[in-house]
Design goal:
By secondary structure, the protein is of the alpha/beta class. The protein is built from eight helices and ten strands. Helix 6 links the parallel strand 8 and strand 9. The protein starts with a strand and ends with a helix. The mean pLDDT is 96. The structure holds adenosine-5'-triphosphate and magnesium ion. The site of magnesium ion has 4 residues, from helix 1.
Length: 218
């Protein structure tokens, strides 16, 4: 089973959703390795990689590219004298029986010249793409822009949208899910309310997402 979690932007809730989903899958008897292969602003004890590992109940896996500067991965890598490339990243998950990968930043954020998170997502060869979008005005555009980008890699037919509630709700927050369902731009839309990971409402959203992920297993 392979799942990739991508976002319409940075800070939209990818780690929040990925952790909730990983925990739900483990609760349902599907162990997995949760990875963040590229992480900028990497600070060991408080990293996304550590949060994912906690949720999936395994030791932290240091990102293949653990970059200190909190800027776009391609810039952080360049400034560290590195070039991000997919080969060592692919090798990192090649032995996993089930993998969940969180990408770094937005779907089209650059990783290196000619390389974006879209390439990383395609490299996962995912059964499911979880697209995390902030549940606010603009979410419909964000979903369409990302699904069109995913379509260029034939990944648009396996998209589950997770609408993550931002700190401030707006006039669209309440309606985005039903509008997306009506537009038919995603196989499934799941709303993640503004709540702690352990909260029952987050767990319920994650269970719903997990159900679809498990159904898509090869
Ligand atoms: N639905 C939510 N409920 C509560 N907090 C949330 C929710 N979504 C996001 N957050 C919080 O917002 C902040 C940013 O979310 P998160 O770290 O998950 O974003 P991200 O897309 O993973 O960011 P990055 O691009 O840096 O990896 C975090 O503090 C997270 O806990
Ligand atoms: Mg994150």
């Amino acid at each position: 089973m392979r799942v990739v979690v991508v976002g319409a932007g940075t800070g939209v809730g990818k780690t929040h959703v990925a952790c909730a989903l990983a925990a739900a899958l483990v609760r349902r008897g599907q162990p997995l390795t949760a990875r963040k292969p590229v992480e900028s602003g990497y600070d060991e004890p408080v990293s996304d990689a550590a949060a994912l590992a906690r949720a999936a109940l395994h030791p932290t896996i240091t990102p293949t590219f653990a970059l200190a500067e909190p800027v776009s991965p391609h810039r952080a890598a360049r400034r560290a004298g590195l070039t991000i490339d997919l080969e060592p990243i692919r090798a990192s998950w090649s032995g996993d029986s089930a993998t969940l990968v969180e990408s770094a930043g937005g779907l089209l954020s650059p990783l290196a010249p000619g390389l974006t998170n879209l390439d990383l997502a395609a490299a996962v060869e995912p059964d499911v793409v979880v697209l995390v979008v902030a549940n606010r005005l603009g979410a419909l555009h964000d979903v369409r822009a990302c699904t069109m980008a995913l379509a260029t890699r034939a990944l648009d037919t396996r998209v589950l949208v997770a609408l993550s509630e931002p700190a401030a709700r707006d006039a669209a927050t309440e309606h985005n899910a039903e509008e997306l369902e009506a537009l038919g731009w995603a196989v499934r839309v799941v709303e993640f309310p503004r709540a702690l990971l352990e909260d029952g409402s987050t767990c319920a959203a994650a269970e719903s997402l997990a159900e679809f992920v498990l159904a898509a297993r090869p």
